[in-house]
Give the backbone structure.
Amino acid sequence: MLLINQKNMLWDSCICIDFISAFMGKGIVIPDRDQEYFEAIKEIWQSFEEGRIVIYASTLAFVESVKIDGISSPLQVLEVRKFFQRIYNNMIAIGQEIAEGANTVRSLAQISLCQYDSIHLSTAINMNIPILITRDDKKPRPFLKRDNKYKTKNGQ
Amino acid sequence: MDNNIRILTPEKYLQILEDERVELEMKNIKEEIEKTLKKDKAKGQRRLID
């Protein structure tokens, strides 16, 4: 299956959150081991900005993204809003069909699928979006906790 | 439900696109070579006839 003609993709919450954390507002210092991952997100976003692809997101991602490191500062809330304003027309609300789909997907999944992931997956399925972009769970990137490992660019 | 959905990481998505781009380029190059060979062959045959 050729993906090159498939211009629609859905970003799940963690990708949205990572993008906001790294590239909006103050930004975080990206550790070397995660450079490739963040470059990839950035490149995909650039393709979206240039109109080559369309990025969709569930309204759930908007809700999940608001608490980037536990406690949301007004600035963070603003950054999250700014990001979702850019994809405002591509945000998909969780309706009955998506909820039903998420329920089915969770019950049928052979692997453990959390409720949030099942909603993202069901959203993509229901809207015929052929690609769902998510993180590789084998390589967790705890970006949202701004601990000693993940400082912001100005050192906060 | 459509079960053709692909779940990919950003890196994997870009890698697939890159692989497809390379594949497409290779295909185009191959086609160009074939065209040139055909032309050369036709030229050679014309020369033989002349």
